[in-house]
UniProtKB/TrEMBL annotation:
Source species of the chain: Phenylobacterium hankyongense
GO MF, any single term: 3-hydroxyacyl-CoA dehydratase activity
Domain of life: Bacteria
CDD domains: crotonase-like
One protein family per Pfam: ECH_1
Protein name as catalogued: enoyl-CoA hydratase
Reactions listed under catalytic activity: a (3S)-3-hydroxyacyl-CoA = a (2E)-enoyl-CoA + H2O; a 4-saturated-(3S)-3-hydroxyacyl-CoA = a (3E)-enoyl-CoA + H2O
InterPro entries named in the record: ClpP/crotonase-like_dom_sf (IPR029045), Enoyl-CoA_hyd/isom_CS (IPR018376), Enoyl-CoA_hydra/iso (IPR001753), Enoyl-CoA_hydra_C (IPR014748)
Family per record: Belongs to the enoyl-CoA hydratase/isomerase family.
Keywords carried by this UniProt record: Fatty acid metabolism, Lipid metabolism, Lyase
Function: Could possibly oxidize fatty acids using specific components.
GO biological process: fatty acid beta-oxidation
Entry's EC annotation: 4.2.1.17
Length: 261
């Protein structure tokens, strides 16, 4: 499928990995309705394709995404925003996506762009990355989870300062604060993200999905409920051939070959 606002690639040296590039260079990848609709379509296609085991979502060197498209949004009424579930519908598709998505962030990740990165499973940042929720400067607020996720990731004090002042955080601060899993040189960003994705794509896709669900549950439930869920899913993995294969491969000192069953 071809898209107007995305470039979707299957890198030759990364079996099982799909690389999605946001591609609105003239608008610093601002997230308009078209882009969010196409991203939903690309996720549908990736979810339906058993060969796809992990996604990498990235932007350009200058911007991952500079937020929701302000020009598209500025004249909307409350009724239009509400009736169309404007902007927020696309975010829900990402929340429901069951395969892992890595955000590879260089340059600006602002407003909806920062929120989009946080909707992914983890963020690898280039040393050029800048994160922020500057919606306050526009008289509004984050709309796809920024007030909640940023607070959970970096704590109340830093999140409150960023959201109320619009201050940006550079890559080093984002790593110290726990927003990103690690920072790499900008010219190594895609290589590093693809290497992580390739590693995930080689694991049992069933075990990967269950692990993802449980880490997400840690944000939604109490410790005892999360641990109880983990216990159930841990035992359930023994119903899959992939568990037998993974453990047999260890004992036989060979690489496992997971089939997703
Ligand atoms: N929406 C629409 N267009 C945008 C945009 C956005 N969020 N961000 C940048 N652009 C456009 C600019 O208008 C400009 O287009 P023109 O050349 O046609 O004028 C082009 O991208 C390049 O941008 P700049 O000239 O501004 O580039 P810069 O290097 O001087 O500044 C920047 C970069 C600091 C990121 C600046 O563009 C900026 O502040 N952008 C807006 C950031 C923002 O406020 N994001 C939050 C949006 S609201 C939101 O996201 C809501 C939500 O959570 C639900």
């Amino acid at each position: 499928m071809s898209y107007e606002t995305l470039i979707v690639e299957t890198p030759a040296d990364a079996a099982g990995v799909t690389l999605i590039r946001l591609n609105r260079p003239d608008a610093l990848n601002a997230l308009n309705s078209r882009l969010l609709e196409e991203l939903s379509q690309a996720l549908d296609a990736a979810e339906a394709d058993d060969a796809v085991r992990c996604l990498v979502l990235t932007g350009s060197e200058r911007a991952f995404a500079a937020g929701a498209d302000i020009k598209e949004m500025s004249d909307k009424t409350y009724a239009e925003m509400f009736a169309a579930d404007f902007f927020t519908k696309g975010a829900r598709r990402i929340e429901q996506f069951r395969k892992p998505i890595i955000a590879a962030v260089a340059g600006y990740a602002l407003g909806g762009g920062c929120e989009l990165a946080m909707l992914c499973d983890f963020i690898i940042a280039a040393d050029t990355a800048k994160f922020g929720q500057p919606e306050i400067n526009l008289g509004v607020m984050p709309g796809i989870g920024g007030t909640q996720r940023l607070t959970r990731f970096v704590g109340k004090s830093k999140a409150m300062e960023m959201i109320l002042t619009g201050r940006m955080m550079d890559a080093a601060e984002a790593e110290r604060a726990g927003l990103v899993s690690r920072v790499v040189a900008a010219d190594k960003l895609i290589e590093e993200a693809l290497a992580a994705a390739r590693k995930i794509a080689g694991q049992s896709p069933l075990a990967v999905m269950m692990n993802k669900e449980l880490v997400e549950a840690a944000y939604e439930t109490t410790l005892s409920t999360g641990v109880a869920m983990e216990r159930r899913l841990f035992h359930s993995l023994f119903a899959f051939e992939d568990q037998k294969e993974g453990m047999a491969a260890f004992v036989e000192k060979r690489k496992p070959h997971f089939k997703g069953r």
